């Protein structure tokens, strides 16, 4: 019995420069306690704006934020994450 290593094959479509094609166009505000659960279990979260999705990426400083989520968040009273 023998094994063979296959050569790397680029399966990306022609002209694709980015390796992060599935990057969200904008990030949403979500309850903090639901983020880890979604990332680990694959469950869906509901953003403040009503968007429903599984958490697959984390926002980095300067990432675009959903304007509806931001407006709702800024209108919330300060307090806990309940």
TrEMBL record:
<dbReference type="InterPro" id="IPR021400">
    <property type="entry name" value="DUF3039"/>
</dbReference>
<dbReference type="Pfam" id="PF11238">
    <property type="entry name" value="DUF3039"/>
</dbReference>
<feature type="region of interest" description="Disordered">
    <location>
        <begin position="1"/>
        <end position="24"/>
    </location>
</feature>
<protein>
    <recommendedName>
        <fullName>DUF3039 domain-containing protein</fullName>
    </recommendedName>
</protein>
């Amino acid at each position: 019995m023998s094994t063979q290593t296959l050569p790397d094959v680029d399966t990306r479509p022609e002209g694709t420069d980015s390796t992060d094609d599935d990057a969200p166009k904008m990030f949403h505000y979500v309850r903090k306690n639901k983020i880890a659960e979604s990332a680990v279990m694959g469950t869906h979260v509901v953003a403040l704006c009503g968007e429903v999705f599984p958490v697959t990426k984390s926002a980095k400083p300067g990432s675009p934020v959903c304007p509806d989520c931001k407006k709702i968040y800024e209108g919330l009273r300060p307090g806990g994450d309940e």
